[in-house]
Amino acid sequence: MSNRRSADSRLVDNRLPFKTSHWFSEDAPDPKASRAFSSEESAKTEATREEREGWSKEKPRKPDRNLYCDIAIVGAGFAGLSAALEIKCRNPKLDVSIFEAQHAGFGASGRNAGWLMGLPPLLWLLEDTENEKRWEEIRFVSRNIESNLRELKTFLKEQGYSPDQIWQPSRHHLVARNALEEATIRWAAPRFAKAGYPTEQISAARTGDIVSYPARSAIAYEIDTIHPFHLVRSLKAICERNAINIYEDAAIQSVKSGHTQVELKTSAGYMVRAAKLILATNAYTDRIERNFPIPEAKPKHTYMLATNPLDDATLDRISRSRAPFGDPALSFYIGRLHGRSLLFNGVDRDSAVREEDDRHVRSFMKLERALFKRFPFLDSTSIGSAWAGAYLQTGTEAPIVGTVPGHPNVILSIGYGGGSGVGTALMSGKLTADLATEDRMDSDAERMRTLFASGMRWPIGGFLRAGLSILKGMISGSI
Ligand SMILES: Cc1cc2nc3c(=O)[nH]c(=O)nc-3n(C[C@H](O)[C@H](O)[C@H](O)COP(=O)(O)OP(=O)(O)OC[C@H]3O[C@@H](n4cnc5c(N)ncnc54)[C@H](O)[C@@H]3O)c2cc1C
User: Fold this and answer.
1) pLDDT tens-digit series, residues 2-35
2) Strands 262-266 and 400-404
3) Cβ atoms within 10 A of the Cβ of 62, count?
4) What average pLDDT is seen over the chain?
5) Fewest CB atoms less than 10 Å from the CB: which of 143, 307, 405, 420?
6) pTM for this predicted structure
7) Residue 448: inside a domain, yes or no?
8) Cα 292 to middle of ligand 1, angstroms
C-alpha cells in the first residue's frame, strides 16, 4: 500500500490527530508581568443597589452566584478582549466582565492561520477601480485597521511583552499555478495597491525560491504573521492585570434585554445583570436564546493541517526562502512554516458549528489532497495535527457592529471572518467603546460602523466585472 493511500485511510477512519487551539498552546510562552493602566483601576466604587440587594461584585473564575457588572462582554476572542481593554482604558472605573464558554482563545482567535492584514473585507476589493469615492472609503477602513494594529504592538510592548514573540513582519506571496490564477492575481494587484498594499510582481524564474511547486508568476506584499494563541492569551493576561474579570467555563445560555439593563443567564443557572452587553460570540451567536434579532450571517468552517516537525532538507524543498505563500484556487490555500512544521489552511464550508464540523473528514481529505498535490514529497510525512474553526460571515464579509435597533443596551460585535478577520476583530474595541461608555461619540468609529453596515449588499456587479476582467486577462495574457 502506498504512503498516500494509507494517509487517506487514516482520514476515512477518522483517526486524525484532532486538536483545537491547544495545538498553538503547546509552545505559547508564559505571559510576562504587565502594568495596570492606572492606579485608579482597583478603586472600589460605592455599593450599588444591586450589591445591597445581594448581587455580588466579587469575582470567582467561574460564576457561582448572581453577579452585577457595568459592562458584560460575552466571548473571549480578539473581539471580546479588545473591547474590554479599550473600554477599561477609557474609563478604568467601569466594572467590565467577560464571560467565556470555554477558555479565552478557544474560538477562531486562538486557532487561526495567523495572517494579519489591514485589508478591508476582501469582497470590497471587487469595487470598480474608477470609483474614487468608494476607494477613499475603503482606504479609510484599511488605514484605521493598520493604525490600530500599530497601536496594539506599542501597547503590548508597554505592557511588557516582546512583540517578536507574537508576530513577525512577513512577505506574503500569492502564487499563480495556471492561466486562471495568473489572471486573478494580476486583477488583484492594483486593488491591493489601491487599498494600501503595494505589490511586487515576481517572475516565474524567481517563484522557485518561494515554493517548490511549478508556478507561472507571483505577487508579493508585506503583512505580519502572528502566533494566534499567544496573542489572545497575552491580551487575556493584560485584561486580568487591569481588573477586567474574565470568567472561563462560563457559557451564557440566554440574554434578555430590558429598558435599563440586560439580564444574562449562565448555563449553571446564575444570573448576571449589566447596564450594557457586548456580544462578541461570532460564529456561535445563534446558540444563545435572546429577545432581539441579529442581522443574517452564516457560520462557516475552515480547516488546517500541521505536519510533524520537518528536517532542514524538507523545509528547503517546501520553500528555500521559508516564505509564507498562498494560491487563489477556488478555495484560497495558504501555507507557512511555524517552527519546523508546515501549516496548511483552506476549504471553507457553511456549517452549523457542531463538534462534527470541527472534524469533517471529507474537508480534511480535500485539504490533504491539496497539500500533497503541491508537495508530493510530503506524502510520507505524518500529519501532526488537524483542526478546524468557525467564523461568522455576512454577505459582504463586513462585520456587524452597533447597537441592536430598539435595544440600546445591546451592542453586537460579530461577523469577523474571511481573509482579514483577525485585523478587523482586533478593531472591535475601537468600534464599540463609545457605544458602551456613552462618554463621547468617536467620529471615526461611527463612520466605520456606517460603512460596514452600508457595505452589506452583495457585490453582483463587482463579480461580473472581475469575471470579465480575468477572462480578458487570460485571453490576452495581460490585464
Ligand atoms: C482555521 C481558521 C483560520 C483562520 N485564519 C485567518 C487568518 O489567517 N487571518 C485572518 O485574518 N483571519 C483568519 N481567520 C478568521 C479569524 O480567526 C476570526 O475572524 C477572528 O479570530 C474572530 O474573532 P472573534 O473574537 O470575533 O471570534 P472567536 O475567536 O470565535 O471568539 C468567540 C468566543 O465566544 C465564545 N462563546 C461563544 N458562545 C458563547 C456563549 N454562549 N457564552 C460564552 N462564550 C461564548 C467562544 O467560545 C469563543 O471563544 C481564521 C479562522 C479560522 C477558523
Assistant:
1) 444 444 544 544 455 666 655 665 544 333 333 4
2) unpaired
3) 12
4) 85
5) 405
6) 0.89
7) no
8) 22
